[in-house]
Write a structure and sequence with these properties.
By secondary structure, the protein is α/β, with parallel strands linked by helices. 38% of the residues lie in helices and 16% in strands.
């Protein structure tokens, strides 16, 4: 497979998570043929400098890829700005990109999955991105892959043509959704999760989340993202160490399964999987909220 997308990993101060992410990424057969670019954010304070430098020193000595480039931020700009700025910068040079954060374990065929579908849908302007994660809900697995409206953020890829739709200003996105009030229910995954509330909070604190703006931007443009029925990503940052993640042990698949044969499918929103994800969110959030309260009480 030629013309592979560059892999971009965003890291901060979690050396164990970061090493685990790179270890699993290197197991991919296409790793040695891929360019790896790492964006390391700066430290928030003096106490953080040691951990940040540890990550940077490790990053500069990674091998097993076609090429390595490490970009170290001079100061802390936060996860949201690091990703927005980093993705924009790389897509100024390349036509496509694969994105991971420093707490994501990927399937050994993750790069094959991403590059294959990036090629299949590269000229389809209705497709915004390819996603590697899916919730571990029970389903019939009739659909090996499926599309949902919008975009997602845990192990994903996109094209320069799609990223140009990213709206950085959350207020503009809120205003557009409020004008089309009937869309909010669907935007919230049929009340599975209040993404609209999350988007409104982003107005006061845009540094908090870039992903909600990516989702809203693509959703409002009627663009779609392809998902695997069985997840190709495990998020090990849901142990409470992540910048935006609470402790949660119900999101990851118990194990990785064999990657199904990759083939082109029609682009439309799969109502079956949207309903299943909505149900999972409803059941899952009550457990997460209870866990969050218990953890706060323990602290």
């Amino acid at each position: 497979m030629s013309n592979l997308a560059p892999i971009v990993v965003f890291a901060y101060n979690r050396i164990i998570h970061f090493k685990t992410t790179i270890k699993h990424l290197k197991k991919n057969t296409l790793a040695s043929k891929s360019n790896l670019i790492i964006f390391c954010d700066g430290s928030k304070n003096k106490n953080d400098e040691k951990k940040v430098n540890e990550v940077r020193n490790y990053a500069k000595n990674i091998n097993g890829f076609k090429s390595l480039k490490v970009i170290c931020r001079k100061k802390n700009i936060g996860l949201a700005n690091n990703i927005i700025n980093g993705v924009t910068k790389i897509l100024g040079k390349y036509s496509k990109i694969i994105v991971l954060e420093d707490d994501m374990i990927c399937h050994k065929n993750f790069l094959n999955y991403m590059n294959s579908f990036l090629e299949i849908y590269r000229n389809n302007k209705n497709v915004a991105s390819i996603h590697g994660f899916n919730y571990p809900y029970k389903n019939n697995y009739k659909d090996k892959f499926f599309f949902l409206k919008g975009a997602d953020c845990w192990g994903w890829s996109t094209w320069k043509r799609a990223w140009q739709h990213f709206e950085k200003n959350p207020k503009k996105l809120v205003n557009k959704l409020e004008k089309k009030n009937e869309l909010i229910y669907d935007f919230n995954f049929q009340d599975g999760y209040d993404y609209f509330k999350m988007l409104k909070k982003n107005i006061k604190n845009p540094k908090k989340s870039w992903a909600i703006r990516w989702y809203a931007s693509t959703y409002l443009k009627n663009l779609y993202t392809l998902y695997p029925a069985k997840s190709l990503i495990k998020n090990i940052g849901s142990d409470g160490t992540g910048e935006n993640c609470i402790i949660d042990y119900h999101l990851n698949p118990r194990k990785f399964y064999k990657l199904p044969k990759i083939k082109k499918i029609n682009v439309y929103e799969n109502k079956y999987h949207k309903k299943k994800i909505s149900e999972f969110m409803n059941n899952h959030l009550s457990v997460s909220f209870l866990k969050k309260i218990i953890n706060l009480l323990k602290k």
